[in-house]
Amino acid sequence: MRLRTIGALLGALLLGALAPAAASGAGALTLSAMRGTVEINEYEVSVVGIVADNHTGAAIRDAAVVVDASQVSSSVEVMHMLQDCARAGKVFTCRTSVAAGDFAQFQLVVQAHQGAGKGPAGQVTVTAPGSTPIKVGLQVIRPQLADIQTTSDRQVGSVGQTVPVTIVVHNAGPDSSYRPTVFVYEADGLDFQGFAACPGTLEEGGCMLPTLTAGKSLAVVAKIKITGKDPSGTYGVRTSTADPNTANAGLLDVCVRGGYCTNGRRYGVQAAPSGGAASPKPQATATATTSAAPAPAEPGTPSGTGTGAAPAASEHAVAAPDLEPMAVRGPAEGLPAMLAFGLVFTVVVVASVQVARTFRPGRDR
Hints:
This protein has 3 helices and 22 strands. It has helices spanning 3-14, 326-329, 331-358, and strands at residues 19-20, 30-33, 37-40, 46-53, 60-68, 76-81, 86-88, 91-98, 103-112, 119-127, 134-140, 146-152, 155-157, 162-174, 181-186, 190-197, 201-203, 206-208, 217-226, 233-238, 249-251, 254-256.
C-alpha cells in the first residue's frame, strides 16, 4: 500500500483540482470528484476522492452522502472508506454536517485483484439528498514492471580483515527500473565500510544506480569489515518501479576463518569458495607396520613397478580391515578368525580318529 498515493490525492483535493458536477437546489450539498476516471492496478491501492461543498450560505446538518460501488467490476476489490461510514456490501453511507462555505471530503479505497485484465472496471456512484449524483469510472491499467534480481560473490577473511563483496543487480524486465538503489544492512560480526565501487551516485548511505533497462546488470562493490567469528548482514535494492517479485535482498556472503559463514554453517573445506586454494580435507590413513617381507598381492591386483620399495599409497586409500594383521586389529577383531580355525582343527582331528578306527588290525573289511 502506498500512502503517498493517498497523500497526493488528498493534496489535489485540497488544492481544488476538481471537476464539479452541476449544483443542486438550495439547501443541498454540491458533489464533485477529483477526476472522472480513476486508474488502478494490482500493485498499489487507489482512492476515489469525493468532495461535498456547502455553497448555500447556511449550515447543513446530518446529511447522508452515499458512495455506491455495487457496479464496480469483480476484478476490483472494494476495500473500505477512509471515513467512518456505515457499510452494506459495496454501498457506504456517510453522515456529515457542513458549515456554510465549508466542505467535507470522502475517500473510497480500491485495488485491482492479481491478474485483473486491462480496461474499464465499472463505476462508483455518489449521491446526497437534493444533490446531482456523480459517477466515477474505474480503469485497470498495467503498470510499469521491473523484476529486480540480485546475486553476490563469496568472500573469506579473518577477524579484523576488510573484504570486498560484489553485489550484482539485474533487471529481468519487462520494463526499465527507475534508479534502483543498493543498501547494505550490517549486523553482528560485519561492519559496512562504504562502497569501493558504485556505478552511480551515493545517496543517503546507498548506491543509486542509473535507470536500469530490461536485461541490463550493474555491479556494486561493498567494503565489509569482519568483526566477529559468527557474522550476519544483508543487502537490499529499493526501486520505485513496481516489482512482481519483491525478494530484492540477500545475505552478505562472507565466511570467517576459524568461525562461521553468514549462512549459519561453520566455515571449512565444504564452505570454501569454488576454485579456491583451500587444502583438501584430511583423509583417514592406515597405521604403518614393519614386516620382514612384503605381503603377497591380492589376485587381480597390478604388481609394483620394481623390486625396490613399495609404491607410495594414495592419500585417499584406506587399508582393508580384513587384511590387517591381528596385532593391528587387536584380540576382539581377531576372535572370529580364531574360532573358525578351532572349528576346522576339531573337524580334522575327528576325521583322523575315524580313519584310524577303520584301519585297525583284525577289523573286517
